[in-house]
Amino acid sequence: MTLRTSFVKVMLCIGVLCVTATESSAQKLFSFFVHGVYAQPLDENFNGNYNAGLGVEGGVRIAINRTALVATVGYTNFFSSNNSELGNLQFIPVKIGLRQYIISRLVFIHGDVGIARITGDLYNNASRFSGDAGIGVKLTGFEVQLDYDGFTRKSPEATGYSSWIGLKAGINLGL
């Protein structure tokens, strides 16, 4: 075998590997995701009545190039603080939003809006506007994101926005 023939074979192998790698790393048009959620209350009123929250969220994503339409449903339980007589609070959001990849298909920003069902002694099964914004990193099938999240508050004791910082991590399975 000559040097030229060997060179051509090596170049063909590299070309095949490049095409295979490009096709396998291409973003899927449709994907499912599931995240575990840790939430730390921020505002004074919400933080005074509730400790950290734990939950889960899941949803679907439809992507076109670097932008994706996202639909999410979740459940987070905020645990009553020691000095609160309100009991735990359950946050059950249904949201739609957008995800925009800003660095390759690795780093993204996102925003979601929707309605959340809030249950607990203070809110008693109320529906409230809910929204979040954040930044995240996606590595193959694993992703992690940091969010500012919350819901509108309307009660005689306090109005405004109950908010928290959320850390979400989980899997993303594309089709």
What does this structure look like?
The chain is an alpha+beta fold and 175 residues long. The chain has a single domain, classed as Porin, CATH 2.40.160.20. The protein is built from two helices and eight strands, in the order αβαβββββββ. The chain has helices at 3-25, 44-49; strands at residues 30-41, 50-64, 67-80, 89-103, 107-119, 126-139, 142-154, 159-174. Strands 1-2-3-4-5-6-7-8 form an eight-stranded antiparallel beta barrel. The chain starts with a helix and ends with a strand.
Write the layout of secondary structure elements.
Layout: H1 3-25, E1 30-41, H2 44-49, E2 50-64, E3 67-80, E4 89-103, E5 107-119, E6 126-139, E7 142-154, E8 159-174
Antiparallel strand pairs: 1-2, 1-8, 2-3, 3-4, 4-5, 5-6, 6-7, 7-8
Number of strands: 8
Structural class of the secondary elements? alpha+beta
Rounded to an integer, what's the Rg over CA atoms? 22 Å
CATH class: Mainly Beta
What is the rounded distance between the termini?
43 Å
CATH topology: Porin
Uncertain runs:
10-25
Number of domain units: 1
Task: Tell me the strand order in the biggest sheet.
Answer: 1-2-3-4-5-6-7-8
Helix-residue proportion: 10-25%
Task: Name the average pLDDT.
Answer: 84
Secondary-structure arrangement, i.e. CATH architecture: Beta Barrel
Order of helices and strands: HEHEEEEEEE
Q: How would you sum up the major sheet? A: 8 strands, antiparallel, barrel
Q: How large is the count of helical segments?
A: 2
**What proportion strand?**
over 45%
